[in-house]
Amino acid sequence: MLIPQTSTSLIETLRLRRQQLANLINFPAILWSGSNSSRNFPANAFPFRASSHFLYFAGLPLSKAAIRLEAGKLELFIDDPSPSSALWHGEMPTREEIAQKIGADVARPMAELESWVEDVATLAVQDAATWTQQSQLLNRWVLPQSPPQGIDLELAKAIVTLRLTHDQAALTQLRKAAAVTVEAHKAGMAATPKAKLEAEVRAAMEGVIIAHNMTTSYNSIVTVHGEVLHNEEYHHPLQSGDLLLSDVGAETQTGWAGDVTRTWPVSGKFSSTQRDIYNVVLAAHDACIAKIHPGIEYGDIHLLAATVIAEGLVELGILQGNPQDLVEMDAHALFFPHGIGHLLGLDVHDMEDLGDLAGYEEGRERSDRFGLSYLRLNRPLRAGMLVTIEPGFYQVPAILNDANVRSKYQNVVNWQRLSEFADVRGIRIEDDVLVTEIGSEVLTAALPNSSSAVEDLVSC
Amino acid sequence: MLIPQTSTSLIETLRLRRQQLANLINFPAILWSGSNSSRNFPANAFPFRASSHFLYFAGLPLSKAAIRLEAGKLELFIDDPSPSSALWHGEMPTREEIAQKIGADVARPMAELESWVEDVATLAVQDAATWTQQSQLLNRWVLPQSPPQGIDLELAKAIVTLRLTHDQAALTQLRKAAAVTVEAHKAGMAATPKAKLEAEVRAAMEGVIIAHNMTTSYNSIVTVHGEVLHNEEYHHPLQSGDLLLSDVGAETQTGWAGDVTRTWPVSGKFSSTQRDIYNVVLAAHDACIAKIHPGIEYGDIHLLAATVIAEGLVELGILQGNPQDLVEMDAHALFFPHGIGHLLGLDVHDMEDLGDLAGYEEGRERSDRFGLSYLRLNRPLRAGMLVTIEPGFYQVPAILNDANVRSKYQNVVNWQRLSEFADVRGIRIEDDVLVTEIGSEVLTAALPNSSSAVEDLVSC
Fold it and tell me: Do A2 and B398 touch (CB under 8 A)?
């Protein structure tokens, strides 16, 4: 385990975070870090990822640890490295050394945790060994798939309040994740002319992330079939008329995520149909970012994207009618079936382990409208929030070939005209946007997104 | 899910494997494939890895599937893709299409599995969602950390018998894994002169694996601190006097593993002390491989490595005494504290999910001798087995600075002489060796290992 350079600022950051928590709840909380999940046999594990809630208050990706937070105090529970572990894992920091790094008030072995569980709230960690331990120690089920209840729910709401907006320490990490993510995308574009398979472009992109000693914040999408929204296959050959859609993000060592999508022509040159649609998506992207400021409803940003896309498609002759009416009947969602974005932080969909508790303002629920049901964020924005803006255009066969859909929208889609855009299967343009006091700042702005700039990056 | 090109040979291979199983057991077995393990929130999962036992008999990395094997028959249980999944995951193959690919006799939805569980044996899958389901359906605990018992143990022994030696289809996959692993190591050596951090070399190596649309078969070790045996940190700077130890392997899409280690000088040139020790390790490596043939005890191969290392260290003046006596008192293990290797197949430590059932001949148990306790394989070798040969030399502080160790071995180690080799912290040379009818074949032989050839690959 690498312990980054001590900094009083880490200690101070963590102290402030738990002080803020103490202002919101008046009961103790224990947050577990989690342990490795096994891959094909117990000793062959997936890379360890600490729980995001733990990382927020403990600052370090410690394995098999827990912290107890009460009234601004930090108690660390972790075992000292075993003597035999030095052979396999080298000299590891002791409990006391770790406690000092993070400014813990007390440090105790894990076995003592059971004496400190009375009336504590917690949040479920993903790996079974840990949620089993949580459930046993607290004598109630603590399950990652079940929404928190009672004081756990109170704790969750308090943590959401804190994590919704980012402090300076978080922003420093998020900027690092954004910078490496940008570099990865540039490497992917540069690698495209010589690549024969999607996998080769993915390798160039993830290579940048690995070289910076970071990890991907989610499973990369690098595909010429952008119409498959969660495409995690990389075996397709790159053909010169294809668009390559890459949704790849870096995550720093303490867990902060980047999340960027670019779509570029394999040949280095958009066809005129590809460029037309690209510019529609980019117009939606730019319009949304221009509107971001404290107080605006994120749902309105989504509807703005829908409107700009509808307008663009009307202009191209693909949709017919008044753009506002088209959006009201969800015609834009034929081609843009997902939400305009989501919260970004320690998780790429930040705090999605808590369901919609973070994404949706209290009292709001998901819409059952086709064009809104996938919206992950529905709150007024506040300074310090980080969100993605990621409009797209896709020709999804499951949608466009559906008989009910075709009949419902037969008069608003010019299917003949649409067929001329067959070389545009999927386009998405996604950036990470910080809400500031005066508007917004695009953390990933160093990555160009105009069609000509993208072409230049592919060809250079 | 990508379904590789149909081949009657896949169907035929699977038919032969289950026919062989039917010759060994007279009760039905159900093998589950497993499901994704979550990372930081349920929808952000680690890449899916199917259970190796399932892969052996089903051939494809299907998620959330099970197969029932009885008397040579193959019954597939898997759900058809849901209509809504087409939006997110594209067109997926149907149950019937998958059944056809693998030559299943029958295909049924998962919900029917509960009608087919009477008197069946199984083996635990690693992810909690699946072993929970296994336990519920079979009405007994099926746990990945507990050794199989009763008919599960009989099933495990039968599967070990099959998987201990590799058929042609397995070897085709293992050769592919070996070839990409070799290429990854060459890329790592070539990237070293320009790299400033371990992470950058790791990126070059894993980039090759990703570009071939494969994954790593275990978490890579790429370190200038080879003396930390399971070092999974990559942040150290590369300095010109350092040796870089890289233990990195590729895994094919159907799960077959490569596992290779090379150690090279960051500067492209071994120091004379580094070259001396390197040649001792290489001599052990070569002597072991030369001895491999059907019938030889793998434990004897381990002792041969120990002897050659002891001889070499006596010649260099680091150890003092008769090499045989030194090995008997485990003096070699001061510098070579692990086993000479292990089985390799669908798992990098093949079938280690079954404890020592595969590694140790029935009736044998781990030695408690310091020099033998970490030996993972203790069986007579047979044609068709694939093993690693991986001798090493390490200056592990936890061993060499231990007061008891120093006192026990004070007369056999020339500590003064040893101090002259301070620039050799860790060296390992590992290849994948197939036992053949007439001796052995090194599947990773395309990767040179002489000190001068390694220097050439770093400098070129």
Answer: no
Residue A1 pLDDT greater than 50, yes or no: no
Q: Model-level pTM greater than 0.80?
A: yes
* Nearest chain B Cα distance for residue A156, angstroms: 14
B211/A227 touch (CB, cutoff 8 Å), yes or no: no
At B80-137, the pLDDT tens digits run 988 778 888 888 899 999 999 999 999 999 999 999 999 999 999 999 999 999 999 9
Which has the closest alpha carbon to A376: A345, A341, A350?
A: A341
pLDDT of B1 over the 50 cut: no
- In CATH terms, is domain B168-459 a member of 3.30.70.260? no
**Banded model confidence at residue A91, pLDDT cuts 50, 70, 90:** confident
Among candidates A91, A351, A353 on the partner chain, residue whose Cβ is nearest the Cβ of B42: A353
Instruction: Please say if the pLDDT value at position A8 is more than 70.
Output: no
B87 vs A347, A349, A398: nearest CB: A398
Q: Where in chain B is the domain with CATH 3.90.230.10?
A: 168-459
Nearest to B44 among A40, A347, A397 (CB): A347
Residue intervals of chain A classified under CATH 3.40.350.10 are 8-164
Judged against a pLDDT cut of 90, whether residue A197 lies above it is answered with yes
Judging by DSSP bridges, how do beta strands A426-428 and A386-389 pair with one another? Answer: unpaired
This complex has an ipTM of 0.96
Tell me which of B2, B40, B219 to substitute to probe the interface with A (most A C-beta atoms closer than 10 Å): B40
Cβ within 8 Å, pair B145-A42: yes
CATH 1.10.3720.10 fits B8-163, yes or no: no
- What DSSP letter does each residue of A420-444 carry, written as one string? TTTT-SEEE-BEEEEE-SSSEEETT
Q: Which CATH code for domain A8-164? A: 3.40.350.10
Average per-residue pLDDT for chain A: 96
Interface of A with B in 408-437 (CB under 8 A): none
Residues 6+ apart with CB under 8 A from A282: A429, A449, A450, A451
- Any A CB within 8 A of B225 CB: yes
Taking CA atoms, A379 is separated from A102, A157, A167, B161, in Å, by 33, 14, 19, 59
